[in-house]
Task: structure prediction
Amino acid sequence: MTEPDSTAAATAPDRLFLVDGSGYIFRAYHSLPPMTRPDGTPVNAVYGFTTMLMKLLADMDAERVAVIFDKGRKTFRNEIHPDYKGHRPDAPEDLVPQFPIIRDAVRAFNVACVEMEGFEADDLIATYAKQARARGIDVTVVSSDKDLMQLVRDGVALFDPMKNRPIGPDQVREKFGVGPDRVVDVQALAGDSSDNVPGVPGIGVKTAAQLIEEYGDLESLLARAGEIKQPKRRQNLTEFADQARMSRDLVLLRDDVDVPEPLEGFDVRQPDPDALRAFLVENGFKSVLAKVEGDLIPKPGDGGGAAADPVAEATSAAAAYALVQDIEALRRWVAEARDADVVAIDTETDALSAMRGGLVGISMATAPGRACYIPLAHKGGGEGQLDLGGGGTEAPRQIPLDACVAELKDLLLNPGVLKVGHNIKYDLHVLARVGLEVAPVDDTMVLSYVLDGTRLGQGTHGLDDLAERHFGHAMIAFKDVCGSGKTQITFDRVPLDKAVEYAAEDADYTLRLHRLLKPRLIEERMVTVYETLDRPMVPLLATMERAGIKVDPAVLKDLSKTFAARIGDLEDEVHRLAGHPFNIGSPKQLGEVLFDEMSLQSGRKSSKTGAKSTGADVLEDLAAQGHDLPARVLDWRQFSKLKSTYTDALVEDINPDTGRVHTTFGLTGTSTGRLSSNDPNLQNIPIRTEEGRRIREAFVAEPGHVLLSADYSQIELRLVAHVADIKALKEAFHHGADIHAITASRMFGEPVEGMDPMLRRRAKAINFGIIYGISAFGLSRQLSIPRGEAQRFIDAYFQEFPEILDYMERTKDEARKHGFVRTLFGRKCWAPGINDKNPNARGLAERAAINAPIQGGAADIIKRAMVKLPDALTEAGLGARLLLQVHDELILEVPEAEADQTAALVRKVMEGAASLSVPLVVDTGTAGTWAEAH
Result:
């Protein structure tokens, strides 16, 4: 921060920045994982708030600034409407102690900090904005809160700090459909469910905007409500007129508050060095302290000179992107990358498929804001190109592919230069097809996943999401350069002036993310998980995906014909049982047959339509009661899915160049560290039915080879015995006993010899069900027994194995305390909803938390085995290659003469992947097809 320039003040109006403190707090809290300072106090929101405030103070050009906070939940609006904001949940437990520390942060930077009992921060902001404009001071409100958009006018603007963009009248109209002066009228009609502002029933923002545009304002609309043509809308506007007026009073910001601090107290001031340093040291913010020393405050022992802070640099660096179109420029960038030791890379292709997309260009970044794009196969438009009109173009100036490959080859394999990508597995495929191998590599998507998992929800590790979350930067969207729908073009048709900005930005923000995320591995004790489990999987999975697995289309086509015939037979039988034809695939028509015509009873209703459900669980219940029609519908659905999802679709998935199916493995798609499989999903091929197992007959080995299946035996039960320290189960596993029979014997007092198979089946259902938190209702459905009897079985299980109950309670406590649980190897499995006030949501989160260390531990173990296998096979001189991982099973393609030796080696590696208090056991099988090998 600098003192105002008096000469500038004479020619430009004063400026005031009013910061919506609450918006900053919650954005900071939800953007960062849990952090604690040395005394154990949570400070993730404090840290995020502090860095955001620093960035604002560095970037803003203003003479006055203040941060405005909410003082409490109760304001004058609760006197108008007692339920105002009444249903908002309490602040998270770990955020509450951070509120006063955040106020301390503002004061430590010597910035005015204002709050007032009985009023919201928005009212204080409105009041200060009005006072400032009366003095000719321009106002910027730092917030994206829609409630503050009513303040926008000449001299008053909003600034969204997350998207780094101003919000003026045009943006307000885009949001509300009206100008800022009519926002309050629209909100009064539409209401706001998040704040319990009732509005008028049946009227949303779009309709409200149309009405206000037509009638001018709220009072004019209410006075002329009788003119409204739609009867229901006319009735509601008349009936709820007073409610609309009350809603207007709730959303209208007060701009006449007797505020506690004058504008004169908002002058920008340098912080007190001792106070700022003491605050940062107390809270353990070493990287922030390194940044401000020599900048805002002197560094102890010398006259300044801030220490390099890659995190701060990654956040604040401006961007300068270059287009590389000649070999000399490329050589300069290669040399710069070699000197930098770390380079981010990204590829652009002409198709989304990693296996089929052609390389169009490569981008590199050597420092935050310093990136380039190397076009290689562009065809049209833009800088350096002659637009011929009508879609025709002269080929742009580009480096020949062979020459580019020759220049990049040494760099991309240089062990002294770390190559960083975001989902770099995709780029490894693309580059491999032009002869470029890449090593060593880091992956920022995987880094983010290891650190934050599913803490912020599923699918939150995309580059666009992370750039916005961590840097407040909105990335250029693919549709902005390639269009969408029928007019979408492939990237090789994108003009180079647009291509360079889009492609280089990806590499730039990948490098920024790497500098931000990599240091957190040490701080959060996640180095082992990343370095030994997930990072080595990236090149390994790329190799597996390129290998693919051979599929015989003739087998699939024969199965498809068989399934089609069976579907037809079942359709005829269902129609005969119903007494007439109907669309079996229509839930509505099926429901009419089952519940109206046949008068079958079901209490379950669809959450979407409110009609009686015809889901699989309902049909299974009805079939268990002896009704034939729902049983045949289940069969019909099974065969229909097998045909459409597998036998028909898999034929289309066979790569014509390789004759093999190449799935894509995902490392970041689950909450427990398990891999996922997509395009196609080869992990969900049904194996519980004979018909489903037949699909695996189509997966075959190449001539002279066999498929080897290596499957962990009961690994999750073994992990339960280990982590819960269940002595009886551990002893049974050590003796190689039938674990389900032993369980049944202890629960029901029956000897193992000559045991009724039904008892063993019940024990097996409980053994596996306990891992997933099965309820008495779930067990009763699975075993077709009364719920009371199922509950007695569960109670007996816990009585016989009390250690499992202790483990469950211990795990739930850990999840509630930290927000996550850990696997044996340190992976964090997040438990969002663990402290939810809704008992159903909380119960779901508790069951997931109990299961996560077990399922996640099994996932970690098989990853450890997979990472070790390639080197073990190479050292043994064996020619096997790893093709698939299906949860607890690995599939390899093995030269037929090496089958026995390979199976023995794979068993040894897999069984030695972890040291537990029970033995790990692997079952292996070899055959010409997957079905026979498993």
Notes: Residues 273-307 form one domain. Residues 1-12, 301-309, 381-393 have pLDDT under 50 and may be disordered. The two ends are 68 Å apart (CA to CA).
